[in-house]
Amino acid sequence: MPLAGPKDLFLCPPSHLDLVYEINPWMKKGTPFSRALAQEQWEGLVAAYRGAGAPGRIELCPPREGLPELCSLGDSVFLCDGKALFGRFRHAERAAETPYVRELVLARGFRGHELPPAVVFEGAGETMLWRDRILFGFGIRWTSARATSCARRSGTT
Nearest Cα to 79, choosing from 16, 10, 29? Predict the structure, then answer.
């Protein structure tokens, strides 16, 4: 299988989505939500990508029980030019996603890169491709020094 290009999508259905912990201000246990509605919206998103003629491939990654936020797959990894820069979550509740996503992307031929243990990095949630550049977001969790370190380690500079 060819390595991901900048327009390929890796998506995971919200089959096990659940609100079992609170790690940010918009996650409140006990707040009603509907997994069925999330699934319906996810299916609509995939259909919209396909209907719009998404220029790359759409890869559907299998969900895994016990990983309630895996449908936010990009938080676990940033993929670029055949390389995978694996995330390291600030919150322990999401840490089990990274080994699973590592296994998925390495099996698809990506070369994996790990970050130093002290570096918190939530993958595509903090980075994006724009033309021939990788953009890193800065703020609460990130500094420009960490972004430079990530870029060097992944060989994307």
Answer: 10
> Does 9-154 carry CATH code 3.75.10.10?
yes
Q: Is the dihedral of CA 130, 80, 108, 123 positive or negative?
A: negative
What's the pTM? 0.78
Q: State the Cα–Cα distance between residues 55 and 5, nearest whole angstrom.
A: 10
122-156 pLDDT, tens digit per residue, is: 877 777 777 777 777 766 555 555 556 666 665 55
The one-letter code for the residue type at 66 is G
Instruction: For Cα atoms 142, 144, 149, give the angle at the middle one, nearest 5 degrees.
Output: 95
Q: Domain map of the chain by residue range?
A: 9-154
Q: How far apart are CA 120 and CA 71, in angstroms?
A: 20
Calculated CA dihedral for residues 134, 7, 99, 21, nearest 10 degrees:
90
Name which of 147, 84, 82, 155 is nearest 121 in CA terms: 147
